[in-house]
Protein backbone atom coordinates (compact mmCIF):
# COMPACT_ATOMS: atom_id res chain seq x y z
CA UNK A 1 0.00 0.00 0.00
CA UNK A 2 2.68 2.46 -0.99
CA UNK A 3 0.01 4.78 -2.40
CA UNK A 4 -1.26 5.46 1.13
CA UNK A 5 2.27 6.18 2.34
CA UNK A 6 2.75 8.59 -0.59
CA UNK A 7 -0.52 10.39 0.19
CA UNK A 8 0.49 10.80 3.85
CA UNK A 9 3.98 12.02 2.91
CA UNK A 10 2.40 14.58 0.56
CA UNK A 11 0.03 15.72 3.28
CA UNK A 12 2.90 16.18 5.74
CA UNK A 13 4.98 18.00 3.13
CA UNK A 14 2.18 20.42 2.26
CA UNK A 15 0.96 21.12 5.80
CA UNK A 16 4.35 20.79 7.56
CA UNK A 17 2.88 18.74 10.41
CA UNK A 18 1.88 15.26 11.55
CA UNK A 19 -0.34 16.71 14.26
CA UNK A 20 -3.86 15.45 13.61
CA UNK A 21 -5.47 18.42 15.37
CA UNK A 22 -3.58 20.90 13.18
CA UNK A 23 -4.38 18.95 10.00
CA UNK A 24 -8.12 18.75 10.65
CA UNK A 25 -8.16 22.46 11.50
CA UNK A 26 -6.37 23.30 8.22
CA UNK A 27 -8.79 21.07 6.29
CA UNK A 28 -11.77 22.64 8.12
CA UNK A 29 -12.95 19.30 9.49
CA UNK A 30 -14.98 19.86 12.66
CA UNK A 31 -14.10 17.67 15.66
CA UNK A 32 -17.03 16.72 17.86
CA UNK A 33 -16.58 14.76 21.08
CA UNK A 34 -19.72 13.00 22.23
CA UNK A 35 -21.04 9.89 23.85
CA UNK A 36 -20.97 7.09 21.28
CA UNK A 37 -22.63 3.68 21.19
CA UNK A 38 -20.62 0.94 22.92
CA UNK A 39 -17.78 -0.26 20.70
CA UNK A 40 -17.82 2.87 18.52
CA UNK A 41 -14.77 5.10 18.98
CA UNK A 42 -15.27 7.47 16.08
CA UNK A 43 -16.95 8.22 12.80
CA UNK A 44 -16.34 10.48 9.82
CA UNK A 45 -19.26 12.26 8.19
CA UNK A 46 -19.48 14.46 5.09
CA UNK A 47 -22.89 16.10 4.75
CA UNK A 48 -24.77 17.15 1.62
CA UNK A 49 -23.09 20.56 1.71
CA UNK A 50 -19.60 18.98 1.90
CA UNK A 51 -19.12 20.01 5.51
CA UNK A 52 -16.92 17.43 7.19
CA UNK A 53 -17.06 16.17 10.76
CA UNK A 54 -15.12 13.71 12.85
CA UNK A 55 -17.17 12.44 15.76
CA UNK A 56 -15.18 10.77 18.52
CA UNK A 57 -16.10 9.20 21.81
CA UNK A 58 -15.66 11.52 24.75
CA UNK A 59 -14.34 8.56 26.76
CA UNK A 60 -11.03 8.15 24.90
CA UNK A 61 -7.59 8.74 26.39
CA UNK A 62 -5.48 11.46 24.75
CA UNK A 63 -3.36 8.89 22.89
CA UNK A 64 -6.37 6.87 21.75
CA UNK A 65 -8.09 10.07 20.61
CA UNK A 66 -5.16 10.91 18.30
CA UNK A 67 -5.27 7.44 16.77
CA UNK A 68 -9.03 7.58 16.20
CA UNK A 69 -8.79 11.06 14.66
CA UNK A 70 -5.97 9.87 12.36
CA UNK A 71 -8.07 6.85 11.34
CA UNK A 72 -11.15 9.00 10.61
CA UNK A 73 -8.96 11.51 8.75
CA UNK A 74 -7.86 8.55 6.64
CA UNK A 75 -11.49 7.99 5.65
CA UNK A 76 -11.86 11.70 4.85
CA UNK A 77 -8.83 11.73 2.55
CA UNK A 78 -8.78 8.21 1.08
CA UNK A 79 -12.49 7.53 0.69
CA UNK A 80 -13.83 10.80 -0.69
CA UNK A 81 -16.41 9.04 -2.85
CA UNK A 82 -17.88 7.00 0.00
CA UNK A 83 -21.09 8.28 1.56
CA UNK A 84 -21.31 7.30 5.24
CA UNK A 85 -24.91 6.06 5.01
CA UNK A 86 -23.98 4.00 1.95
CA UNK A 87 -21.05 2.58 3.91
CA UNK A 88 -23.27 1.71 6.89
CA UNK A 89 -26.09 0.14 4.88
CA UNK A 90 -24.24 -1.61 2.04
CA UNK A 91 -23.55 -5.21 2.99
CA UNK A 92 -21.61 -5.94 -0.22
CA UNK A 93 -19.01 -3.28 0.46
CA UNK A 94 -15.58 -4.59 1.47
CA UNK A 95 -15.49 -2.82 4.83
CA UNK A 96 -12.43 -4.75 6.02
CA UNK A 97 -10.40 -3.29 3.14
CA UNK A 98 -11.65 0.24 3.80
CA UNK A 99 -10.92 -0.02 7.53
CA UNK A 100 -7.47 -1.50 6.80
CA UNK A 101 -6.70 1.47 4.55
CA UNK A 102 -7.79 3.97 7.23
CA UNK A 103 -5.65 2.14 9.81
CA UNK A 104 -2.66 2.12 7.44
CA UNK A 105 -3.15 5.87 6.90
CA UNK A 106 -3.17 6.42 10.68
CA UNK A 107 0.00 4.36 11.10
CA UNK A 108 1.83 6.28 8.38
CA UNK A 109 0.70 9.63 9.78
CA UNK A 110 1.40 8.98 13.46
CA UNK A 111 4.69 7.07 13.17
CA UNK A 112 7.52 9.07 11.63
CA UNK A 113 9.70 7.64 8.86
CA UNK A 114 12.69 9.30 10.55
CA UNK A 115 12.78 6.96 13.53
CA UNK A 116 16.15 5.30 14.20
CA UNK A 117 14.98 1.71 14.31
CA UNK A 118 18.29 0.42 15.58
CA UNK A 119 17.15 1.90 18.91
CA UNK A 120 14.20 -0.49 18.89
CA UNK A 121 15.96 -3.65 17.63
CA UNK A 122 15.81 -5.48 20.95
CA UNK A 123 12.27 -4.33 21.79
CA UNK A 124 9.01 -6.14 21.38
CA UNK A 125 6.15 -4.58 19.43
CA UNK A 126 4.40 -4.00 22.74
CA UNK A 127 7.39 -2.04 24.10
CA UNK A 128 7.62 0.01 20.88
CA UNK A 129 3.90 0.69 21.14
CA UNK A 130 4.29 2.13 24.66
CA UNK A 131 7.25 4.32 23.71
CA UNK A 132 5.72 5.64 20.47
CA UNK A 133 2.24 6.07 21.98
CA UNK A 134 0.39 4.10 19.31
CA UNK A 135 -1.26 0.69 19.26
CA UNK A 136 0.62 -2.51 18.49
CA UNK A 137 -1.62 -2.88 15.42
CA UNK A 138 -0.39 0.46 14.02
CA UNK A 139 3.24 -0.56 14.60
CA UNK A 140 2.58 -3.76 12.65
CA UNK A 141 0.83 -1.84 9.84
CA UNK A 142 3.65 0.69 9.57
CA UNK A 143 6.27 -1.98 9.04
CA UNK A 144 4.35 -4.41 6.82
Q: Give the biggest sheet.
A: 3 strands, mixed
The gyration radius over C-alpha positions equals 15 Å
Helix % is: 40-55%
Please write the string of helix (H) and strand (E) elements: HHEEEHHHHH
Question: What is the first-to-last residue Cα distance?
Answer: 9 Å
In terms of DSSP E residues, the strand content is 5-15%
Give the mean pLDDT.
88
The general outline is: globular
Oligomerization state = single chain
Number of domains: 1
Total of helices: 7
Physical arrangement of strands within the biggest beta sheet:
1-3-2
Q: Report the uncertain regions.
A: none
Give the CATH architecture.
Answer: Orthogonal Bundle
- The fold-level CATH name is Arc Repressor Mutant, subunit A
Q: What structural category characterises the helix and strand content?
A: mainly alpha
List how many beta strands DSSP finds.
3
Using the coordinates above, name the CATH class: Mainly Alpha
Organism: Tissierella pigra
Pfam families: Peptidase_M78
Protein name: ImmA/IrrE family metallo-endopeptidase
Domain IrrE N-terminal-like: 27-112
Question: Could you describe the 3D structure shown?
Answer:
This protein has 144 residues and is mostly helical. The protein has one domain (2-142): Arc Repressor Mutant, subunit A (Orthogonal Bundle), CATH 1.10.10.2910. It is built from seven helices and three strands. The protein has helices spanning 2-15, 20-26, 62-78, 84-89, 95-110, 125-132, 136-142; strands at 29-34, 42-46, 52-57. The chain has a three-stranded mixed sheet with strand order 1-3-2. A hairpin with a 5-residue loop joins strand 2 (42-46) and strand 3 (52-57). Helix 1 packs across helix 5, helix 3 (62-78) crosses helix 5 (95-110) and helix 6 (125-132) packs across helix 7. The model has no long low-confidence stretch (mean pLDDT 88). InterPro entries: IrrE_HExxH. It comes from Tissierella pigra. Pfam families: Peptidase_M78 (PF06114).
